[in-house]
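Typical record was shown:
=====
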Amino acid sequence: MELLIQHGASVNLQNSLGTTALMAAAAFGRTAIMQVLLDAKADASLQATEGDTALMIAELYKHTATAQLLREHATRLTAEAEAKAASAEAELLAEEAAEKEAVAAQARADEEAALAAAAKKAAEEEKKAADEAKRAEQKAAAEERRRAQAEAAAARAAEQAQQQAERNSAQLSKYADMFERANQAERDADEQVRATTMYHRVTTM
């Protein structure tokens, strides 16, 4: 049997009655052959034309060990199928969880990017405002310096004008005094002339 299987014989081949090698082994209670067939992936669920399966045939001929092997095999297949289904479901759940995590991660990344962009924009606006404030402060300081310089220049001009006025006043006072002395000298001269004239008149009488 093993040699046939190694050379490619189909373990699930059915004859005209639908009988398989596994059903024949069940009918004769050949547990060892049945094990070889099961290990070679023989399908125990196949039915003959009358609807009998290998397990039904083993039970019909009361081959207890053979029937038990088939039941254990069916139980194992069921468990494997359930395990495979559970594994597939777990993989699906894992994939769904991974997809959700990827979506959440992308959402977090987008949010972080948005926050970073907002922070950058806020920093740029803050810097712009600070630069504008600095320029305004510099402009105000320059205007204050110009105003102070203008006030200082005005004060110097006023002081110079005051000094010039004082000098002019002093000069006028000096000129007035000189004029007064000149007038006095002229009056004194006139008086001297009159006195001299009077003296000559008196002396010549």
In short: The chain has a mean pLDDT of 90.
